[in-house]
Amino acid sequence: MVDVYAKFARDTMALPVIVGHKSPNERFAGALDTLTIEAMMQDGKALQAGTSHFLGQNFAKSFDVQYTDKEGKSQYVWATSWGVSTRLMGALVMAHGDDNGLVLPPALAPIQVVMVPIYRKSEEMEAILEKMEEIKKGLEAQGHSVKIDNRDTLRPGFKFAEWELKGVPVRLAIGPRDLENGTVEVHRRDTLTKETMSLEGIGDHIAALLDDIQANIYKKAFDFREANVEKCDDWEEFKEKITQGKFLLCHWDGTAETEQKIKDETKATIRCIPIDSFVCEEEGKDIYSGKPSSQRVVFAIAY
Facing residues of 52 across strands? Predict the structure, then answer.
C-alpha cells in the first residue's frame, strides 16, 4: 500500500517522497512494522506524509477479534492500518505554495484552466464570452477542467489575484484587441510568467503546458530536496547542520537508546530507514555512539 501512496504523491501531487521503514521508536504504537513516505517541506523540515502499519495480531488479541479458518478453528485476525488523509493536503500546501498562495499540480487541481474576460462595454463582453465558451468546449473535450470567470462585479486584477491564491495552474485572459488579433494571454501559476499566443491550436498548447507545469512543480521540489540531503559522519557537524533544514544520512547503531539520546539533544528523529531513494547499506560508525553500523538512516527535524 505504501507504494501506492508514493506513486500518488509523486505522479499526482508532484511531491518527491522517501519510502522506508520507521524505526521501533517512531513506528505506530503496538505495530510490528510501519512503512512511511517522508517528504521535505520548503523550510527543510520533514513531514510524515503517509503511513502503512502492520499491526500483526496484537490488537486482535487485545480486543478478541477472531475468525474461523477453513478447518473450523478460531484464529486471531492479522490487521493493518493505513494513514493517508489530510496530512497530504498539508504537504501539498507546504511543499509547493508561495507568497501568492497555493500552487496546485494540474493532475490534482479541481480547475486546471480559468479564463478571465477583459472588457469595458457589454458588447465586448458578449463577444469575448462567446469565444471563451468555444475555447472551453475544446479544452473540455480534451479532458481538461475549465472555468470562465464571468463575474461582472469584480475587476480583472482582483480575479487574477484570487485565482493565483487558489493555485489554478493556467489562466487565460482575452480582451477586445486579442479578439481582433486572434490571440490570448496565457499565464502559468508555477512560474508566474505569461505570454501572448495565437488562438489557433490553443488546445494542444494548453495540454502541453499542463504537462510541463506538472513536471516543473515536481522538479522544483525534487531539486530542493536533493540540494538539502547529505551524508554526515561527525556529531558536531550533525548538530550544526540539522538546524539548517536538512535531511542527514547518518549511520545508526540500531538501538533505541542512541536514537532517543539524539532526539533529546537535537530534536532530530529518524524519519525512516530508506528502501527506495538512497543507497544506505554500507559499513560505518554510529553518528552518536561510535558503535558499528551497517546502514545509514534519514535524520531530520519534523513537525
Answer: 35, 82
**Cα-only R_g, the chain:** 25
pTM assigned to the model = 0.91
Which residue type, as a one-letter code, is found at position 248? L
Among the four given CATH numbers 3.40.50.150, 3.30.1330.10, 1.10.10.10, 3.30.110.30, the one describing domain 227-300: 3.30.110.30
Q: Domain map of the chain by residue range?
A: 2-66+74-96, 113-213, 227-300
Q: Which amino acid is at 199?
A: L
Q: Strand (E) positions, 84-169? A: 113-117, 146-148
**Alpha carbon 249 to chain centroid, angstroms:** 21
Report residue 81 as a C-alpha cell. 492500518
CB atoms within 10 A of CB 175: 19
Joined together, the cell numbers standing for residue 68 give 474461523
- Number of Cβ within 10 Å of residue 9's Cβ equals 24
Beta strands 183-188 and 18-21, pairing class: unpaired
User: Do residues 161 and 144 make contact, with C-beta atoms less than 8 angstroms apart?
Assistant: no
Cα(227)–Cα(245) distance, integer angstroms: 11
Q: What is the pLDDT along the chain (303 residues), one digit of tens a residue?
A: 678 888 999 999 999 999 999 999 999 888 999 999 999 999 999 999 999 999 999 899 999 999 999 999 999 999 998 888 788 889 999 999 999 999 999 999 999 999 999 998 888 999 999 999 999 999 999 999 999 999 999 999 999 999 999 999 999 999 999 999 999 999 999 999 999 999 999 999 999 999 999 999 999 999 999 999 999 999 999 999 999 999 999 999 999 999 999 999 999 999 999 998 777 789 999 999 999 999 999 999 998
Kindly report the CATH number that applies to the domain delimited by 113-213.
Answer: 3.40.50.800
